[in-house]
Design goal:
The complex is a heterodimer of chains A (145) and B (222). With 145 residues, chain A is of the alpha/beta class. Helix content of chain A is 45%, strand content 16%. The chains are: A alpha/beta (145), B alpha/beta (222).
């Protein structure tokens, strides 16, 4: 069986995590290339269906990265996202996916090293969990080929 | 509005286990407002069902649709053209909507995705509370607009019981004593004389006890 390389979707707020990702790049920090960033105007834009669709389309892990609590550019968007992420954890659990495959992180635009650290930590977590139960078959098939 | 709550996921999965293609049908009325059966919830439930079935190796095809109201023949007709394509319909409307769909479309299984719970309103976003029991015989004039039928745990009509303490009900310290609320409000309106009026027992024939109810506006009958 070939080495499992997870697909990870990171929903990043334009005003913080996206900037932090940019900074991480400028600082030449390394983090796993499995992270696919989707920029949002604010994490308050996230609804459960965004996260479910990511899993449905083949993500092994999904995280939402917003501003530090109290520092949201739109005052409370990240505090709107937090309970939605927690609620969606329950929804994926009902489906049979581990809730750990979904997480919310907070960081500022100045926290490039933290962005890379979160990316590495989350990559390790998903790597340990293995492929999403929805992708298991596809993974086995591709490994056999 | 009518408040509904989504059924446990496993129960829904069990209902549709024999079908390969279904329609998840949302309702644009009350259940959209109470965030349990509108367009967004149709998307979420459909996504969950597709994933769960994919995981079990029995893929499920879903047509996602939401109509204005499922308790109105005018809108129900709108799904007719899609029915031959699906094995069954999973309705996210309240019980009334499910009944209307079932009466309209013979030969097509229709399943409820929600438990219809009560008639109420939103205290704040995503937080719903019961305020009416549709007893059919409103007492709100005597009780300063606060319903003793729906809000008193015992539906008492002539004052609180001995279980009222510090404004709360004995069933749960979080539940307000309806009669405390009524008396406080009557006092604020200087209408405590209404509390002195004896209220006769409720006429439960206007409630469900008289069988299914109808309401007919004669001027609309042709």
């Amino acid at each position: 069986m070939s080495e499992f390389e997870p697909i990870i979707i990171a929903f990043c707020c334009h005003y913080c995590a996206y900037g932090a990702a940019d900074l991480a790049g400028s600082m030449r920090l390394e983090y796993p290339p499995n992270i696919r960033v989707i920029r949002l105007p604010c994490t308050g834009k996230v609804t459960p269906i965004f996260l479910l669709r990511a899993f449905e389309k083949g993500a092994d892990g999904v995280y939402v990265a917003g501003c530090l609590e109290g520092d949201c550019h739109f005052i409370h968007g990240n505090l709107v996202a937090k309970p939605r992420v927690n609620f969606t954890k329950k929804l994926i659990q009902e489906v049979g996916l581990e809730p750990e495959r979904l997480e919310m992180f907070n960081m500022s635009a100045a926290m490039g090293p933290r962005f890379a650290e979160v990316a590495r930590e989350f990559y390790d977590r998903i790597k340990k969990l293995g492929p999403s139960p929805l992708n298991k078959k596809a993974h086995v098939t591709s490994a056999a080929a | 509005m009518v408040i509904g709550e989504r059924k446990p996921f496993d129960e829904i999965m069990k209902m549709i286990e024999d079908h390969n293609k279904i329609m998840v049908l949302g309702c644009g009325g009350c259940v959209t407002v109470c965030l349990t059966g509108g367009q967004e919830e149709v998307r979420v439930l459909s996504s969950q069902l597709r994933m769960a079935r994919e995981k079990d190796g029995k893929p499920l095809e879903i047509i996602e649709k939401t109509i204005e109201r499922q308790c109105d023949p005018e809108y129900i007709e709108g799904v007719q053209a899609l029915l031959p394509e699906v094995d069954a319909i999973l309705s996210m409307a309240c019980g009334a909507g499910v009944n209307f769909m079932a009466e309209t479309y013979m030969g097509k299984p229709i399943y409820p995705a929600l438990n219809t719970t009560f008639v109420g309103g939103s205290k704040k976003e995503g937080y719903y509370v019961e305020r009416c029991q549709t007893c059919g015989d409103c007492k709100l004039y005597y009780t300063a607009g606060i319903c003793p039928i729906a809000r008193c745990s015992k539906s008492l009509l002539n004052g609180p019981c001995g279980g009222s303490a510090k404004g709360k009900c004995e069933i749960n310290p979080e539940v307000d004593c309806a009669w405390q609320l009524i008396i406080d409000r009557l006092k604020s309106l200087d209408q405590m004389n209404r509390y002195e009026d004896f209220m006769a027992a409720n006429d439960w024939r206007h409630n469900r006890d008289g069988g299914p109810r109808t309401m007919i506006r004669e001027d609309f009958q042709r």
